[in-house]
Amino acid sequence: MAAALTLTACGSDDDDINGGNASSDNANANTISLIPELGRLEFPHVKNGNSIVLVHKTSDHSFDTDGVNICIEWDTQKKSQRWTCYQMHSGYGGNSGRSDNYIEDPDLPASSRVSDSRSMYSGSGFTRGHICPSADRTFSTEANRQTFYYTNMQPQYYAFNSGGNYNGVWFLMEDKVRKWTNQRTTDVLYVCKGGTIDSNDMLLPSIKSNGEELLVPKYFFMALLCKTNKGEYKAMAFWSKHINYVPSNTNLRDYVISIDELEELTGIDFFCNLPDDIENSVESRTKDKIINAWGL
User: Fold this and answer.
1) How far apart are the first and last CA of the chain?
2) pTM above 0.85, yes or no
């Protein structure tokens, strides 16, 4: 199941779309009149213009009463995703295994994607890099299957995505997210991840075939918001260059930045549905305070 919203506005892509949803304590919140899920805490501020928001649900979600699994913002002109967002809950787990069935997203119009994603990746030198990883969605077969939609993929070097001994930078970041999710102090972890596609200087040379192309991000990011079991919030981001090698000694501290810094780099307003006082506080923490708060 999915809901799709085409976001259009007069003027530039940066026009405000809050409409009547803005309030004195949350001026930058998403408008939720068409799709209520846009008000969830994992959502960044959605982009106007060519964006489609895909909300994928399952009928067997054990943690989410709304059945939401993963949500994706897709640029229909660039035929690429901007991000995937989702929730990770304390007690996360499951044994559904991997679907391994890579398929086109049934809710994305064919005109908004390349004609054959599988053939574009084949022989390209890039893996089909999950943004919401399969391992984050093992609580049901249906939920795992949706992570194999091509809308949840970005081209990634194998050394970055996995590495020969699962020591690639992206893999280590994803593994750390799962460990944070299962800490006793965690209630919910709100996750938004993606690769940079919005400007040419944030791209590597694209994959080209038969007059079509897949954009290849030059950088990848993770924006994380944790609600603790005491009802407190903390936030942080990972930012990494898309590299074609495994560093000799990866220290995730080296990739930590604040949400404010990530917003400056990407132009994306993360966790916009938080009340402004909480958002401003957690997003502006210094790197040292972030490392201490998250136990890195």
Assistant:
1) 37
2) yes
Count Cβ neighbours within 10 Å for each residue of 218-246 and write b for 16 or more, e otherwise. Answer: bbbbbbbbbbeeeeebbbbbbbbebeeeb
pLDDT at 4: 52
**Dist CA 189 CA 177 (whole Å):** 8
Set 45, 56, 61, 130: catalytic member: 130
Instruction: Name the strand (E) or helix (H) holding 289.
Output: helix 287-294
Element (H, E) at 7: strand 2-7
Could you confirm whether 130 is annotated as catalytic? Answer: yes
**Residue corresponding to tokens 């990972």:** 238
Q: What is the dihedral of CA 108, 56, 214, 242, to 10 degrees?
A: 170
Residues in the chain: 296
**Angle (CA) 143 266 71, round 5°:** 15
Q: How far apart are CA 271 and CA 192, in angstroms?
A: 9
Cα(161)–Cα(187) distance, rounded to whole angstroms?
28
Nearest alpha-carbon partner for 234 in 219, 245, 223: 223
CA distance 71 to 82: 11
User: Quick check: 243 and 233 in contact, CB under 8 A?
Assistant: no
Low-confidence ranges of the chain (pLDDT < 50): 1-2, 6-24
